[in-house]
Amino acid sequence: xxxxxxxxxxxxxxxxxxxxxxxxxxxxxxxxxxxxxxxxxxxxxxxxxxxxxxxxxxxxxxxxxxxxxxxxxxxxxxxxxxxxxxxxxxxxxxxxxxxxxxxxxxxxxxxxxxxxxxxxxxxxxxxxxxxxxxxxxxxxxxxxxxxxxxxxxxxxxxxxxxxxxxxxxxxxxxxxxxxxxxxxxxxxxxxxxxxxxxxxxxxxxxxxxxxxxxxxxxxxxxxxxxxxxxxxxxxxxxxxxxxxxxxxxxxxxxxxxxxxxxxxxxxxxxxxxxxxxxxxxxxxxxxxxxxxxxxxxxxxxxxxxxxxxxxxxxxxx
Length: 317
Hints:
Layout: H1 8-20, H2 23-29, H3 34-48, E1 53-55, E2 60-62, H4 64-81, H5 83-91, E3 96-102, H6 110-121, E4 125-131, H7 134-142, E5 148-152, E6 163-178, H8 179-184, E7 192-193, E8 208-210, H9 217-229, E9 236-239, H10 243-251, E10 257-260, E11 271-275, E12 282-290, H11 296-310
Parallel strand pairs: 3-4, 3-5, 7-11, 8-9
Antiparallel strand pairs: 1-2, 5-12, 6-10, 6-11, 6-12
Helix pairs in contact: 1-2, 1-3, 1-4
Protein backbone atom coordinates (compact mmCIF):
# COMPACT_ATOMS: atom_id res chain seq x y z
CA UNK A 1 0.00 0.00 0.00
CA UNK A 2 1.63 3.18 -1.17
CA UNK A 3 0.59 6.46 -2.73
CA UNK A 4 2.30 9.25 -4.56
CA UNK A 5 0.91 11.82 -2.14
CA UNK A 6 -0.02 11.10 1.50
CA UNK A 7 -3.73 11.39 2.20
CA UNK A 8 -5.24 13.23 5.15
CA UNK A 9 -6.18 9.97 6.87
CA UNK A 10 -2.54 8.89 6.96
CA UNK A 11 -1.48 12.27 8.30
CA UNK A 12 -4.05 12.11 11.11
CA UNK A 13 -2.79 8.63 12.00
CA UNK A 14 0.77 9.96 12.09
CA UNK A 15 -0.16 12.75 14.50
CA UNK A 16 -2.06 10.35 16.79
CA UNK A 17 0.87 7.91 17.04
CA UNK A 18 3.35 10.77 17.54
CA UNK A 19 1.29 12.23 20.39
CA UNK A 20 0.49 8.92 22.09
CA UNK A 21 3.95 7.38 21.45
CA UNK A 22 2.19 4.02 21.42
CA UNK A 23 0.37 2.22 18.60
CA UNK A 24 -2.18 0.60 20.88
CA UNK A 25 -3.22 3.85 22.57
CA UNK A 26 -3.26 5.67 19.23
CA UNK A 27 -5.47 2.94 17.73
CA UNK A 28 -7.91 3.21 20.63
CA UNK A 29 -7.98 7.01 20.24
CA UNK A 30 -8.76 6.58 16.55
CA UNK A 31 -11.42 3.90 17.24
CA UNK A 32 -9.62 1.30 15.17
CA UNK A 33 -7.50 -1.80 15.69
CA UNK A 34 -3.72 -1.68 15.81
CA UNK A 35 -2.78 -3.73 12.69
CA UNK A 36 -4.37 -1.40 10.09
CA UNK A 37 -2.90 1.59 11.93
CA UNK A 38 0.58 0.08 11.75
CA UNK A 39 0.06 -0.69 8.07
CA UNK A 40 -1.05 2.87 7.35
CA UNK A 41 2.04 4.32 9.08
CA UNK A 42 4.29 1.94 7.13
CA UNK A 43 2.60 3.05 3.90
CA UNK A 44 3.14 6.68 4.83
CA UNK A 45 6.84 6.08 5.47
CA UNK A 46 7.14 4.30 2.13
CA UNK A 47 5.41 7.15 0.35
CA UNK A 48 7.71 9.73 1.94
CA UNK A 49 10.79 7.57 1.65
CA UNK A 50 11.85 8.17 5.26
CA UNK A 51 11.42 6.52 8.66
CA UNK A 52 9.13 8.56 10.89
CA UNK A 53 9.26 6.34 14.01
CA UNK A 54 11.92 4.32 15.79
CA UNK A 55 10.16 1.21 17.07
CA UNK A 56 10.97 -1.23 19.85
CA UNK A 57 8.85 -3.99 21.37
CA UNK A 58 7.73 -1.65 24.17
CA UNK A 59 7.81 1.85 22.72
CA UNK A 60 7.71 3.99 19.63
CA UNK A 61 9.52 7.31 19.25
CA UNK A 62 9.71 9.90 16.54
CA UNK A 63 12.87 9.96 14.47
CA UNK A 64 14.56 13.32 13.97
CA UNK A 65 12.79 13.63 10.61
CA UNK A 66 9.46 12.67 12.18
CA UNK A 67 9.88 15.28 14.93
CA UNK A 68 10.63 18.01 12.38
CA UNK A 69 7.73 16.91 10.20
CA UNK A 70 5.12 16.84 12.99
CA UNK A 71 4.43 20.63 13.23
CA UNK A 72 4.17 20.86 9.44
CA UNK A 73 1.64 18.04 9.36
CA UNK A 74 -0.37 19.72 12.11
CA UNK A 75 -0.47 22.91 10.03
CA UNK A 76 -1.58 20.98 6.97
CA UNK A 77 -4.40 19.31 8.88
CA UNK A 78 -5.50 22.63 10.38
CA UNK A 79 -5.62 24.16 6.90
CA UNK A 80 -7.64 21.20 5.60
CA UNK A 81 -10.11 21.53 8.47
CA UNK A 82 -10.53 25.23 7.64
CA UNK A 83 -11.58 24.46 4.06
CA UNK A 84 -15.23 23.75 4.83
CA UNK A 85 -15.93 26.98 6.77
CA UNK A 86 -13.90 28.93 4.19
CA UNK A 87 -15.92 27.44 1.33
CA UNK A 88 -19.15 28.34 3.13
CA UNK A 89 -17.90 31.90 3.69
CA UNK A 90 -16.99 32.19 0.02
CA UNK A 91 -20.43 30.94 -0.97
CA UNK A 92 -22.05 33.59 1.24
CA UNK A 93 -19.81 36.35 -0.11
CA UNK A 94 -18.19 36.82 3.29
CA UNK A 95 -14.66 36.09 2.03
CA UNK A 96 -12.79 36.32 -1.24
CA UNK A 97 -11.45 39.04 -3.52
CA UNK A 98 -13.28 41.89 -5.24
CA UNK A 99 -11.53 43.76 -8.06
CA UNK A 100 -13.17 47.18 -8.10
CA UNK A 101 -12.30 50.23 -10.20
CA UNK A 102 -13.56 53.78 -9.81
CA UNK A 103 -13.47 57.12 -11.56
CA UNK A 104 -11.58 59.86 -9.76
CA UNK A 105 -14.79 61.82 -9.15
CA UNK A 106 -16.09 58.97 -6.94
CA UNK A 107 -13.06 59.19 -4.68
CA UNK A 108 -14.36 62.32 -2.94
CA UNK A 109 -17.89 61.28 -2.05
CA UNK A 110 -19.37 57.98 -3.11
CA UNK A 111 -16.42 55.58 -2.88
CA UNK A 112 -15.48 56.19 0.79
CA UNK A 113 -19.09 55.62 1.87
CA UNK A 114 -19.33 52.32 0.00
CA UNK A 115 -15.96 51.04 1.20
CA UNK A 116 -16.73 51.93 4.80
CA UNK A 117 -20.04 50.08 4.81
CA UNK A 118 -18.79 47.09 2.83
CA UNK A 119 -15.65 46.77 4.98
CA UNK A 120 -17.68 46.86 8.18
CA UNK A 121 -20.01 44.11 6.97
CA UNK A 122 -17.48 41.96 5.07
CA UNK A 123 -14.09 42.45 6.75
CA UNK A 124 -12.68 39.22 5.28
CA UNK A 125 -13.11 40.32 1.66
CA UNK A 126 -9.90 41.64 0.12
CA UNK A 127 -10.47 44.63 -2.15
CA UNK A 128 -8.29 45.29 -5.19
CA UNK A 129 -8.90 48.96 -5.96
CA UNK A 130 -7.92 50.69 -9.20
CA UNK A 131 -8.55 54.26 -10.28
CA UNK A 132 -9.42 54.42 -13.98
CA UNK A 133 -11.48 56.44 -16.41
CA UNK A 134 -14.91 55.15 -17.44
CA UNK A 135 -13.79 53.95 -20.87
CA UNK A 136 -10.90 51.94 -19.44
CA UNK A 137 -13.14 50.36 -16.82
CA UNK A 138 -15.67 49.20 -19.38
CA UNK A 139 -12.98 47.55 -21.49
CA UNK A 140 -11.47 45.86 -18.43
CA UNK A 141 -14.89 44.61 -17.35
CA UNK A 142 -15.68 43.16 -20.74
CA UNK A 143 -12.26 41.47 -20.78
CA UNK A 144 -12.95 39.92 -17.36
CA UNK A 145 -10.14 41.71 -15.54
CA UNK A 146 -12.47 43.63 -13.23
CA UNK A 147 -15.45 42.55 -11.16
CA UNK A 148 -17.18 45.93 -11.06
CA UNK A 149 -16.59 49.61 -11.60
CA UNK A 150 -17.91 52.98 -10.52
CA UNK A 151 -18.30 54.99 -13.71
CA UNK A 152 -20.05 58.06 -15.06
CA UNK A 153 -23.04 57.36 -17.30
CA UNK A 154 -23.88 56.61 -20.01
CA UNK A 155 -22.36 53.25 -20.89
CA UNK A 156 -21.03 52.71 -24.43
CA UNK A 157 -23.92 51.28 -26.51
CA UNK A 158 -21.72 48.56 -28.02
CA UNK A 159 -21.21 46.97 -24.58
CA UNK A 160 -24.63 47.64 -23.05
CA UNK A 161 -25.90 44.10 -23.64
CA UNK A 162 -22.97 42.61 -21.71
CA UNK A 163 -23.17 44.88 -18.70
CA UNK A 164 -25.53 45.67 -15.85
CA UNK A 165 -25.97 49.24 -14.64
CA UNK A 166 -27.06 50.47 -11.22
CA UNK A 167 -27.33 54.27 -10.91
CA UNK A 168 -26.21 55.34 -7.46
CA UNK A 169 -25.71 59.08 -7.20
CA UNK A 170 -26.66 62.23 -9.07
CA UNK A 171 -24.98 65.50 -8.22
CA UNK A 172 -24.92 68.94 -9.82
CA UNK A 173 -21.95 70.50 -11.53
CA UNK A 174 -20.26 73.34 -9.66
CA UNK A 175 -17.58 75.81 -10.70
CA UNK A 176 -13.99 75.38 -9.58
CA UNK A 177 -12.11 78.62 -10.13
CA UNK A 178 -8.96 80.40 -9.01
CA UNK A 179 -9.59 82.33 -5.79
CA UNK A 180 -8.41 85.55 -7.46
CA UNK A 181 -11.16 85.20 -10.08
CA UNK A 182 -13.75 84.47 -7.41
CA UNK A 183 -12.72 87.60 -5.56
CA UNK A 184 -13.01 89.74 -8.71
CA UNK A 185 -16.52 88.44 -9.25
CA UNK A 186 -17.51 89.46 -5.74
CA UNK A 187 -17.22 85.94 -4.37
CA UNK A 188 -14.60 84.84 -1.91
CA UNK A 189 -10.84 85.19 -1.88
CA UNK A 190 -10.27 82.35 0.57
CA UNK A 191 -10.11 78.75 -0.55
CA UNK A 192 -12.84 76.15 -0.20
CA UNK A 193 -16.59 76.03 -0.73
CA UNK A 194 -18.79 79.12 -0.88
CA UNK A 195 -22.58 79.15 -1.22
CA UNK A 196 -22.84 82.23 -3.45
CA UNK A 197 -23.91 81.13 -6.93
CA UNK A 198 -21.85 82.27 -9.90
CA UNK A 199 -23.14 82.80 -13.43
CA UNK A 200 -21.47 80.79 -16.16
CA UNK A 201 -21.51 83.94 -18.29
CA UNK A 202 -19.15 85.54 -15.76
CA UNK A 203 -16.72 82.69 -16.42
CA UNK A 204 -17.03 82.79 -20.21
CA UNK A 205 -13.67 84.45 -20.82
CA UNK A 206 -11.74 82.03 -18.61
CA UNK A 207 -10.17 78.98 -20.33
CA UNK A 208 -11.97 75.74 -19.58
CA UNK A 209 -10.05 72.82 -18.09
CA UNK A 210 -11.84 69.56 -18.95
CA UNK A 211 -11.60 65.81 -19.51
CA UNK A 212 -10.96 64.67 -23.11
CA UNK A 213 -14.30 63.63 -24.57
CA UNK A 214 -13.23 60.12 -25.62
CA UNK A 215 -12.41 59.25 -21.99
CA UNK A 216 -15.69 60.44 -20.45
CA UNK A 217 -18.18 61.38 -23.17
CA UNK A 218 -21.14 61.66 -20.78
CA UNK A 219 -19.26 63.98 -18.44
CA UNK A 220 -17.83 66.04 -21.30
CA UNK A 221 -21.21 66.44 -23.00
CA UNK A 222 -22.88 67.53 -19.74
CA UNK A 223 -20.35 70.33 -19.41
CA UNK A 224 -20.80 71.38 -23.03
CA UNK A 225 -24.60 71.30 -22.57
CA UNK A 226 -24.20 73.57 -19.57
CA UNK A 227 -22.31 76.14 -21.67
CA UNK A 228 -24.75 75.70 -24.54
CA UNK A 229 -27.74 76.38 -22.31
CA UNK A 230 -26.07 79.63 -21.25
CA UNK A 231 -25.47 80.58 -24.91
CA UNK A 232 -21.71 80.43 -24.49
CA UNK A 233 -19.06 78.81 -26.67
CA UNK A 234 -16.47 77.45 -24.20
CA UNK A 235 -12.81 78.25 -24.66
CA UNK A 236 -11.15 74.88 -23.98
CA UNK A 237 -7.70 75.69 -22.67
CA UNK A 238 -6.38 72.46 -21.16
CA UNK A 239 -7.40 68.81 -21.04
CA UNK A 240 -6.47 66.35 -18.27
CA UNK A 241 -7.51 62.78 -17.52
CA UNK A 242 -7.50 62.97 -13.72
CA UNK A 243 -9.78 65.15 -11.63
CA UNK A 244 -6.92 65.92 -9.25
CA UNK A 245 -4.91 67.26 -12.18
CA UNK A 246 -7.82 69.39 -13.40
CA UNK A 247 -8.18 71.00 -9.98
CA UNK A 248 -4.41 71.51 -9.75
CA UNK A 249 -4.47 73.32 -13.11
CA UNK A 250 -7.24 75.56 -11.77
CA UNK A 251 -5.08 76.22 -8.71
CA UNK A 252 -2.24 77.26 -11.04
CA UNK A 253 -4.52 79.83 -12.69
CA UNK A 254 -4.82 77.90 -15.97
CA UNK A 255 -8.58 78.30 -16.14
CA UNK A 256 -11.85 77.17 -14.59
CA UNK A 257 -13.52 73.78 -14.45
CA UNK A 258 -17.02 72.42 -13.98
CA UNK A 259 -16.85 69.49 -11.59
CA UNK A 260 -19.27 67.30 -9.61
CA UNK A 261 -20.25 68.90 -6.32
CA UNK A 262 -18.51 66.22 -4.24
CA UNK A 263 -15.18 67.51 -5.61
CA UNK A 264 -15.45 70.41 -3.22
CA UNK A 265 -13.90 68.03 -0.69
CA UNK A 266 -10.72 68.07 -2.79
CA UNK A 267 -9.03 71.11 -1.29
CA UNK A 268 -6.31 72.93 -3.21
CA UNK A 269 -4.62 76.19 -2.34
CA UNK A 270 -6.01 78.95 -4.51
CA UNK A 271 -9.19 77.11 -5.57
CA UNK A 272 -12.73 78.21 -4.75
CA UNK A 273 -15.80 76.04 -5.43
CA UNK A 274 -19.14 77.76 -6.00
CA UNK A 275 -22.58 76.60 -7.21
CA UNK A 276 -23.70 77.62 -10.67
CA UNK A 277 -26.67 79.94 -11.15
CA UNK A 278 -29.58 78.74 -13.23
CA UNK A 279 -30.46 75.21 -14.38
CA UNK A 280 -27.49 72.89 -13.92
CA UNK A 281 -27.12 69.38 -15.36
CA UNK A 282 -26.47 66.53 -12.95
CA UNK A 283 -23.70 63.97 -13.25
CA UNK A 284 -24.82 60.39 -12.67
CA UNK A 285 -22.39 57.89 -11.20
CA UNK A 286 -23.25 54.22 -10.94
CA UNK A 287 -21.99 50.71 -10.58
CA UNK A 288 -21.39 48.56 -13.65
CA UNK A 289 -20.61 44.84 -13.84
CA UNK A 290 -20.78 41.96 -16.28
CA UNK A 291 -24.27 40.50 -16.53
CA UNK A 292 -22.90 36.92 -16.61
CA UNK A 293 -21.15 35.19 -13.72
CA UNK A 294 -21.83 37.36 -10.66
CA UNK A 295 -19.78 35.96 -7.78
CA UNK A 296 -21.13 35.85 -4.21
CA UNK A 297 -18.67 38.58 -3.20
CA UNK A 298 -19.81 40.83 -6.03
CA UNK A 299 -23.46 40.12 -5.20
CA UNK A 300 -22.78 41.24 -1.63
CA UNK A 301 -21.15 44.46 -2.84
CA UNK A 302 -24.03 45.15 -5.23
CA UNK A 303 -26.46 44.94 -2.31
CA UNK A 304 -24.41 47.50 -0.36
CA UNK A 305 -24.41 49.81 -3.39
CA UNK A 306 -28.15 49.24 -3.93
CA UNK A 307 -28.82 50.31 -0.34
CA UNK A 308 -26.98 53.59 -0.97
CA UNK A 309 -28.83 54.10 -4.24
CA UNK A 310 -32.17 53.67 -2.48
CA UNK A 311 -31.32 56.55 -0.12
CA UNK A 312 -30.86 58.91 -3.05
CA UNK A 313 -27.10 58.61 -3.32
CA UNK A 314 -26.39 61.98 -1.72
CA UNK A 315 -22.63 62.46 -1.90
CA UNK A 316 -22.19 66.19 -2.10
CA UNK A 317 -22.94 67.06 1.49
